[in-house]
Specification:
The complex is a heterodimer. By secondary structure, chain A is α+β, with helices and mostly antiparallel strands. Chain A contains 5 helices and 5 strands. Chain A has a single domain, classed as 2-Layer Sandwich (Heat Shock Protein 90). In chain A, strands 1-2-3-5-4 form a 5-stranded antiparallel beta sheet, with helices on one face. In chain A, strand 4 and strand 5 form a beta hairpin. Chain B is of the alpha/beta class. Chain B has 5 helices and 5 strands; from the N terminus they run H-E-E-H-E-H-E-H-E-H. The chains are: A alpha+beta, B alpha/beta. Chains A and B meet through helix 1, helix 2 and helix 5 of A and helix 2 and helix 3 of B. The complex binds adenosine-5'-triphosphate and magnesium ion. The site of adenosine-5'-triphosphate has 22 residues of chain A, from helix 2 and helix 5.
């Protein structure tokens, strides 16, 4: 049986930030998914969620669990990424000062997602939504 | 097996919130304030020492499977961080010591 869940992520809402990821983690635990797989999904979902909160105009995270894999899809309403290759580099960040003071902006989010995933896709360009797919095989 | 409550006792930490998680098993310590760096490197059961005190710290602790959060140098803690720590049963602890001093004391404790 497949399980599908969707979460709306609001722009700049730091009080709720991380709730979608925490919820997904709880669901996966209830499904009896192995701990190391849950950790990888939790880390990558958190990073995708925070990027929507910090860098986008808001968006959505969709979870799909099948017997073979867990897929997390993060799609936002733009404004998109000018240079995706550069954004993928460890340490690259355009985070403004006020969020850097909160500990964001290490430029590690996208590299973390890629490292945690068995399959990682990102598609974005300036003026368009950013779409990220993270797949972890069970 | 080391529990959060033994760390609280031996390091004389102030319990700010999340007392429901005091029996969680502790395994090592991690010190860091850059959240995605912490997320990438923290291990299950680590006591996480950070000077960040906003509410998102609890989400990182939860997702990173930290056993507790220790705020050094008596830094002020946001009210919604306290509420969230209580809701999630993540022990939120505070010390007057620096992260370095906390780590030194912790290493003696772990050595026993
Ligand atoms: N959803 C998004 N919309 C627009 N730009 C994005 C989005 N996600 C990432 N970016 C861009 O890519 C850069 C790198 O992202 P990454 O998550 O690796 O680092 P960061 O968010 O800046 O810092 P960290 O994740 O370490 O807190 C961002 O600074 C931002 O410029
Ligand atoms: Mg990021």
């Amino acid at each position: 049986m497949n399980i599908k869940l969707s979460y709306d992520i609001a722009k700049s809402d730091f009080s709720k930030a991380g709730e979608a990821s925490s919820n997904i983690k709880k669901v996966l635990r209830q499904l009896g998914i192995p701990a190391d797989i849950i950790k990888r999904i939790a880390v990558s979902t958190y990073e995708a969620e925070m990027n929507i909160v910090i860098h986008s105009d808001g968006g959505r995270i969709d979870l799909l669990v099948t017997p073979e894999k867990i897929q997390v899809k993060a799609v936002d309403k733009g404004p998109g990424i000018k240079d995706v290759e550069l954004a993928m580099k460890e340490g690259f960040s355009t985070a403004p000062n006020e969020v850097r003071e909160m500990g964001f902006g290490a430029g590690m989010g996208l590299p973390n997602m890629k490292r945690c995933a068995d399959e990682f896709h990102i598609s974005s360009s300036l003026g368009n939504p950013t779409e990220i797919t993270i797949i972890v095989n069970i | 097996m080391l529990q959060v409550k033994s760390v609280v006792e031996k390091l004389q930490l102030e319990i700010i919130a999340g007392a429901g998680g005091l029996e969680t098993e502790v395994n090592g310590m991690y010190i860091g304030d850059l959240l995605s760096w912490v997320m990438a490197n923290i291990d299950k059961g680590n006591c996480w020492v950070t000077i960040q005190t906003h509410v998102n710290v609890i989400a990182v602790a939860l997702l990173g499977e930290a056993s507790c959060v220790i705020i050094p140098e008596n830094a002020e803690i946001d009210e919604n961080t306290i509420e969230k720590a209580n809701a999630e049963n993540i022990p939120l602890l505070r010390s007057s010591l620096s992260a370095y001093e906390i780590a030194l004391m912790f290493s003696k404790l772990e050595g026993n």
